[in-house]
Specification:
148 residues, globular, mainly alpha
């Protein structure tokens, strides 16, 4: 016979085990949008404007894929766009892009400090930046500053 205590203990254990998976799923949902916003900001900084075709080319995806994502970004209040015009970031979009850029730079600096090659650090930091907690990011920044 199972006691209530054992059942609730198993439920607590399952909940603790599932927490990292829930966080990863949530991270994946926002990861792609953050990448688009960062790229749009980069294009605006480099070229003075961002166009859907430029985004598609940089990401290696079809224009239709970019159109669908731009709709999601518009719905989230991160970009504005009129037909056949450049993509504009909203204030919230710029804030998200800057936040992502800083996270990316911190992770990349950390990897470089560990001795990872520049090319690998650039590539790996692109994925890691979306999944690292604020606590870990702060620890990475502290580590890098102590090594300087």
């Amino acid at each position: 016979m199972t006691t209530g205590r054992n059942s609730s203990g198993k439920a607590r254990t399952a909940k603790l085990q599932s927490a990292p998976f829930r966080r990863t799923r949530a991270d994946h949902q926002s990861e792609l949008m953050e990448d688009y916003v960062e790229l749009i900001a980069q294009l605006i900084d480099e070229k003075g404007e961002a166009r859907g075709s430029d985004v598609a080319m940089r990401l290696g995806v079809a224009n239709a894929t970019v159109v669908k994502m731009l709709k999601r970004l518009t719905d989230r209040g991160l970009v504005t766009q009129q037909p056949y015009r450049a993509i504009m970031l909203t204030l919230e979009g710029w804030t998200l892009a800057e936040h992502g850029k800083k996270r990316h730079a911190t992770v990349e600096s950390f990897l470089l400090t560990l001795g990872v090659s520049p090319e690998t650090a650039r590539i790996d930091s692109e994925g890691i930046e979306h999944h690292v907690s604020s606590e870990t990011l702060k620890a990475m920044a502290r580590f890098v500053s102590r090594q300087s």
